[in-house]
Structure formats: C-alpha cells, structure tokens
Design a protein that fits this description.
By secondary structure, this protein is an alpha/beta fold. The protein folds into three domains: 26-93, no CATH class; 127-365, Aspartate Aminotransferase, domain 2; 367-470, Aspartate Aminotransferase, domain 1 (Alpha-Beta Complex). The chain has helices at 26-48, 56-68, 79-92, 112-124, 135-152, 167-182, 195-203, 221-230, 253-263, 334-338, 357-391, 416-428, 456-469, and strands at 102-103, 160-164, 186-190, 210-212, 236-241, 266-271, 295-299, 311-315, 396-398, 406-411, 433-439, 442-448. Bound molecules: pyridoxal-5'-phosphate. Residues 106, 166-168, 171, 194, 196, 241, 243, 245, 270, 272-273, 299, 311 line the site of pyridoxal-5'-phosphate. Residues 1-28 are annotated as: Disordered. InterPro entries: PyrdxlP-dep_de-COase (IPR002129), PyrdxlP-dep_Trfase (IPR015424), PyrdxlP-dep_Trfase_major (IPR015421).
Length: 472
C-alpha cells in the first residue's frame, strides 16, 4: 500500500490573488492583517472614548455611510485600507460591552481567549452539516455538547445537547421537539416568558400560548395549577424561565416541575440567562429543579462570555432528538451512515453551520468550572454592589435586590416619560447604555451587568451619571 504524499497547500500567493486563511501558509498571510485589525480596534475604541459614540443614530448613520462609500468600488482598495477604515469605523461606532457603562442588555463582553478561538474557527471554516467538512469539529461538538448537557442533567443516562444560534433557536427547537413527541402541544407559560416562546408557537403553527400571571416577576404556582387543571384535553408544554430578561428572576422551578408531573405536562426551562449559575458553588442552588425539565435552553453568549453565537438546547436523553433526523443524499446517504460516517443533519435544522463549539470548548478548558464559577460570582456581586449604591442615593429608587445581575431602578418621583427620555439622552450623549423594563406598572431603568471586571468605582460613576442627568 502506498501512502499518499502529505502536502499542505499554502495560500495562493501567485499573482495578485488575495491569500487564503487556511493551510500551513494561512497564518503567515493572516498575521500582518491581524495587526491592521488589532490596531484599528484600538484606534476606534480610543476615538470613541466611552461606551458608545455620541450623536445618536442620525449622526452615526451619516458617518458610516461616508466611510463605506463607495460600497463596491470599481477598483478594490486593498486589504489593508479596507480593514483599517471599516474596522476603525466599526469599533468607533460600537456599543462596546467591555465598557463598564455599557450595561443595557444581555450583551456580553466576550473573553479574549474565546475570540482568539473563534479566529481559528473562521480560518478553517468547518461546516457541521457533514463529517467530510468537519471531521474534528464534529467530534469536538459531540464531546462538548454531551459534557454541557451532563452539567444540566447530572443524573441522566444519556444527556445530549444541540448547539444553536442562541436562546431563540433553542426555545424554538424545544417547542418543535415537544410537538413532534406529544402532538400539537398547548404552551402554558408565565407572563414573564421570553417573547421567543410565543413566536415559536406562531412559527410552528401551534395555538396561542396560555399565559399565567407572574405578579412579582415569577410564574404564580396557584395560577399555573389552575391553568393546567382547566386544560384537560390535549398535550401541554409548560415553559418556565431561569433568569428573566427583564429582571433576572428565577421561576420556582421545583414547584413548577411538581405541577407538570401531577398534570402530565412536558416541561421546558429557558435558562438562557441563569443557566451558567451551574458553574458556581455559591449560586447553583438557585437552579434547583432545573434537571427535572425535558429540555433546557442555555446561552453562553450571556453569562458565558462568548462572542455570538453560543446557544445550547440540552435534553436528558439523546433519543429525544430523534424527530430532527433528516436525510439529504449529498450529505448523509444511508450507505455512508451505515459505513460509520457520523450523521450531522439531525443535530440542527440548519444546513451549513459554524463550529461555535470551538470557542466554548477552549473557554471551558482554559477556565475550568472554578474559573467560570468565579466569573459568575463576581458578576452577581457587582449587581449587588450596584443595588447597594442605588439604595444609598436619596434621589434614586431601587426596584428590588437583584437575584442574577439585573438591577432595576429609577429617579425617585420621575414619570415614565422622564425615565424613557433619560435613557435616550444617555445613549445619544454616548455616556451610558442602560436598558428599560416595566415592573409593577412603572417603567424602570435596567442595568444588566455582565462584565466581571466592573469595579465599585465604575458603578458609582454610572449611578452618579443617572442621578445627575435626571430631570424628573
Ligand atoms: C436572551 C434570551 C433569549 C433569547 O436568546 P438569543 O440568544 O437572543 O436568541 C431567550 N430567553 C431568555 C430568558 C433570554 O434572556
């Protein structure tokens, strides 16, 4: 038997062809370009100087339009010029979640190590729709998704997880799997449910979900019991939330799981935000009952510090994923699958699919459970500090002590219109990114803290800024 010569192609360097990122020569082509990108990132961030650029959308739209024109020049401007000008404008015009006053949404500051790993994913560009496009990537995805699923379902025999584009896709898949397993399910959810669950019902042709009150921000158990008692014909899927987007609250998961058992309903828990508390020794008890769900959504591009996208749908048994089985002759013909080539199409409704698992695997290995737990603990501690600071300011009102890392507050005595105006003023001045949420019939400013580097001084500056900008 002859061994074929093992050559690694180098990027095309001949003529004026732009070099490729892969092969043994790819890194040499990339290195100088990365220098341009990194310099442009720094220059843009320095020019911005704050969490986002001042001027609001009109000003920024104009400056981006000027930078990018002509979008398709007749003669190319070359890699360096294009990278420098556009990356600089992109960085200048960013709402940068690494800035301590960028705290509006579940918009995470990604870890440098995860971004570095993502570069390798882009350079090699494996696509997870067939093994012959992603040999190591598919093996890594299988290992890491099983390990993550085992964190969620430690007592399950064959836990497994799908990698998704985020919580929205994970919730959609959870509803789809429930429909395929039980028939056209009626979703029953708290009023605190993420909007993507309602949209999933619409997308999948299911009836409008039954909504149960969540008067204090979490699903009311007596009301849920009543709703489940009233729905005695047809399959039911209860969806609960571990970490609401508006207030960072956790539904009574054990109580909800008890009710689902008693009424024979399936249970999905959306832990997009709160799921990574599993890594924290101090806080994992807040998720008691999570492993009683039939499926769980996790979003590692929130409290997992991954660049988008890094969603997970975990299930206690891989057999639950069977409804996604699908064949396309060019990707997973039966004879290939029988001969032992892994069948990847059943792991997503997408076809071409990025190896988002690489950055996740690198992060888990680099930090370990302790390192991730520490980041979770620091982030939650920053939220408690923020609440303490607000509590000490007579001009501000705190909604309640945070459970996760979301703090709702408002200038005392301000109207809802004044609260909304204050938020936009801070945005347009480029001084702070805060979110907004309704609770108890009023509009609140929302600080969603995800940056584990945030210091007490940073929080003090943010709070002082709000107090000083308030006009009632
Ligand atoms: C963020 C979030 C989602 C949606 O996740 P995406 O990654 O934005 O698709 C779903 N549910 C909850 C509770 C969330 O916080």
């Amino acid at each position: 038997m002859t061994t074929p010569p093992r050559t690694t192609s180098s990027p095309t360097t001949g003529g004026d062809l732009p070099p490729l990122a892969g092969g043994s020569g790819g890194p040499d082509a990339l290195r100088p370009l990365l220098d341009v990108v990194l310099d442009a990132l720094r220059t843009g961030a320095l020019a911005r100087g704050g969490p986002l650029p001042p001027g609001g959308p009109r000003h920024l739209d104009r400056s981006v339009a000027e930078t990018v024109a002509p979008v398709i020049p007749d003669r190319g401007r070359g890699a360096r010029e294009a990278l420098r000008s556009l990356v600089e404008a992109f960085a200048y015009g960013a709402a940068d979640p690494a800035h301590p006053r960028c705290a509006g949404h579940l918009h995470t500051p990604p870890l440098a190590l995860a971004v570095a790993a993502d570069l390798a994913a882009s350079a090699l560009n494996p696509s997870l729709d067939s093994w012959d496009q992603a040999p190591a990537a598919s093996a890594l995805e299988a290992e890491v998704s099983r390990a993550l699923a085992a964190e969620v379902f430690p007592r399950a025999a064959r836990p497994d997880a799908l990698v998704t584009t985020g919580g929205t896709e994970a919730n959609q898949l959870a509803v789809l799997l429930a429909r395929e397993q039980h028939g056209p399910v009626r979703i029953v959810c708290g009023a605190n449910i993420h909007h993507s669950v309602r949209r999933s019902a619409w997308l999948l042709g299911l009836p409008e979900p039954v909504t149960v009150p969540a008067p204090d921000g979490t699903t009311d158990l007596a009301a849920l019991d009543g709703a489940l008692t009233a729905l005695h014909d047809g399959p039911v899927l209860v969806t609960a939330t571990a970490g609401t987007t508006d207030a960072g609250l956790i539904d009574p998961l054990d109580g909800i799981a008890d009710l689902c058992e008693r009424h024979g309903a399936a249970l999905h828990i959306d832990a997009a935000y709160g799921g990574p508390l599993l890594f924290s020794h101090c806080h994992r008890n807040l998720l008691r009952g999570l492993d009683r769900a039939h499926s769980v959504t996790l979003d590692l591009h929130k409290l997992g510090w991954q660049p988008v996208a890094a969603g997970i749908l975990a299930v206690p048994g891989s057999a639950r994923l069977a409804p996604l089985a699908h064949t396309a002759d060019y990707l997973n013909p039966d004879d290939d699958t029988e001969a032992g080539l892994p069948d990847l199409l059943g792991r997503s409704p997408r076809t071409t699919r990025r190896p988002d698992i690489l950055k996740v695997a690198v992060t888990l290995r680099a930090l370990g459970r302790d390192g991730l737990g520490d980041l979770v603990d620091r982030t939650l501690a920053a939220a408690r500090d923020c609440a303490d600071l607000i509590g000490g300011r007579p001009g501000l009102e705190l909604h309640r002590r945070p459970v996760l890392s979301t703090v709702l507050f408002r200038p005392r005595g301000a109207s809802d219109t004044a609260v909304a105006g204050l938020r936009r003023r801070l945005l347009y001045d480029g001084r702070a990114v805060l979110g907004r949420a309704h609770a108890d019939g009023r509009l609140w400013l929302k600080a969603t803290l995800l940056n584990p580097h945030t210091t007490a001084d940073d929080l003090d500056t943010l709070i002082a800024l709000v107090e000083g900008s308030s006009t009632r």
